[in-house]
Each structure stands twice: as C-alpha cells, then as structure tokens.
C-alpha cells in the first residue's frame, strides 16, 4: 500500500497505530505484533514523507465519548463475532482523516468488510477523500500476509493454508458449473475442518456491496471466511466470478 501511495501521490503520509477501540475485552490488543523500528525502516526505504504514530491518549484523551457506528454493514461477517470492531474502525479512521487531511486514502482488500465500511462512511459523511483499494498480498504458498501470522507454529501455518485453498476450490467449483452457494460453502467447510487446530468462525458468500448472503452465484460475489487456527484468528476473501 505504501508503494501504491508513492506512485499516485505527491506527498505520502502513513499512520501506524494499534487501535484499542477495535479490540474486544478478550482479544489480543496487548500481545498484537508491533515492530515500530522495522515499520519506520520500510517506510524510509519506500520514500514515505511523513509517519504519524500517535499514542492512545492522543487519539482517545480523558473524557472521550464520541464514536461512529454504521447501522447495517457491521451486522455481517466479522461484525457478528467482533461487535465492537467496526465502531472502533470507523471512529479511528474518521479521526485520522481529520488529522492528516489526505486527498486519497489506501486500504487493503484483505480486510474487505473494513474497506466496505470505510467506503460507506466516506460517502455518508461527505468526506472529500478518494478511497483506493490495494489487493491482498500473499506469501509464495498463498497465505494472506497478516501481522497475526507471527503467532502460528509451523504445524498451524500448514493448517492456515486451508483458508486460501478453500477459496481456490470455490473458484474451481464455480468454473465447473456449481453456482449453489451452500454447496460451495459445504465443500470449504469440509476442507478446513479436515486440518488440525482449525475452528471456523464463518464462511460466507455474499453481495460485495451490501454483504447480504446470496444463495446462487449468478453475478460477482464475495466469498469471505474467518477461521481460528489454534488461538490465532485469520481472515481471507476472494471475489468469485460466474462464467
């Protein structure tokens, strides 16, 4: 995303902030991987002009009580098991927009629901900002890059590959004429459940804009999934295109 920003912008600003408002009480805020020295080094290598690294009190000072909540989009996918997540996302992104005042902001497609929420917020609240998406970046074996991958043991990492493998399988089934969303989800469930230490949070095939579930894939559809591998929660997604 930094490289993409360097290509399209005259001045490139990034923010680095692990946002406490989007973590639930039993989630991994305290242990979430942080390496500010490495992040700053990479930013310098790419040619970032400024890095904004606020602390918690800068963004959430004593007495803070104003939050942004969307009515419908969070009631799908990750929002069902992480009810505070998108309230925290929308609030901190709005604050960062007001502080940095970008003309263009780039967000990754791996967090597809987050990207959809931000698009909706920018539209609804009339932010004069263009939202650009960056494609999911994967390891050579297909695993979507994520800070949480650092939690995985070698055996768990092998199980984690089933997220991507299930998306590829769904794509192949659709190519071979299977358009029933339930059948594709069942195949993905069987594949993931066959690997050790996996626990499925959700597998959904839905409309890419509303995130409402669909039964038949007769137009481009989002397949999104969240799976716990050991204690690590991982997400991935892919747009499925019918023939």
Mind explaining what this structure looks like?
Helices cover 37% and strands 18% of the residues. It has helices spanning 2-8, 36-46, 56-59, 78-81, 85-100, 112-124, 154-175, 181-193; strands spanning 13-15, 50-52, 104-108, 130-134, 198-206, 221-229, 232-240. Helix 5 crosses helix 6 (112-124). The radius of gyration is 19 Å and the shape is globular. The mean pLDDT is 97.
Features:
Rossmann fold; 2 domains; single chain; 243 residues; Pantoate--beta-alanine Ligase, Chain: A,domain 2; alpha/beta
Low-pLDDT runs: none
Assembly state: single chain
> What's the architecture of the largest domain in CATH terms?
3-Layer(aba) Sandwich
Which outline best applies? globular
Q: Hey, roughly how much beta strand do the residues contain?
A: 15-25%
Q: What number of structural domains do the residues give? A: 2
Mean pLDDT: 97
Fourth-level CATH superfamily of the largest domain: HUPs
Total helical elements: 8
The secondary-structure element order is HEHEHHHEHEHHEEE
| Structural class designation | alpha/beta
SSE blueprint and pairings:
Layout: H1 2-8, E1 13-15, H2 36-46, E2 50-52, H3 56-59, H4 78-81, H5 85-100, E3 104-108, H6 112-124, E4 130-134, H7 154-175, H8 181-193, E5 198-206, E6 221-229, E7 232-240
Parallel strand pairs: 1-2, 3-4
Antiparallel strand pairs: 5-6, 6-7
In short:
This protein has 243 residues and is an alpha/beta fold.
């Amino acid at each position: 995303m930094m490289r993409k920003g360097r290509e399209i912008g005259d001045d490139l600003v990034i923010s680095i902030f692990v946002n406490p408002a989007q973590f639930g009480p039993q989630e991994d805020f305290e242990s979430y991987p942080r390496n500010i020295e490495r992040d700053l080094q990479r930013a310098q290598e790419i040619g970032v002009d400024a890095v904004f690294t606020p602390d918690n009190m800068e963004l959430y000072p004593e007495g803070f009580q104003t939050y942004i909540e969307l009515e419908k989009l969070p009631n799908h996918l990750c929002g069902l098991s992480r009810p505070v997540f998108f309230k925290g996302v929308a609030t901190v992104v709005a604050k960062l927009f007001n502080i940095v005042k970008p003309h263009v902001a780039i967000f990754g497609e791996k967090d597809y629901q987050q990207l959809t929420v931000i698009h909706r917020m920018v539209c609804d609240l009339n932010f004069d900002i263009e939202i650009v998406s960056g494609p999911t970046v994967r390891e050579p074996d297909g695993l979507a890059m994520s800070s949480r991958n650092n939690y995985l043991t070698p055996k768990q990492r092998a199980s984690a590959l089933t997220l991507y493998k299930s998306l590829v399988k769904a794509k192949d089934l659709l190519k071979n004429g299977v358009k029933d969303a339930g059948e594709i989800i069942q195949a993905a469930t069987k594949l993931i459940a066959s690997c050790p230490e996996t626990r499925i949070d959700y597998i959904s095939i839905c409309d890419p804009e509303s995130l409402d579930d669909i039964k038949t894939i007769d137009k481009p559809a989002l397949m999104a999934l969240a799976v716990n591998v050991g204690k690590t929660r991982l997400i991935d997604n892919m747009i499925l295109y019918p023939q």
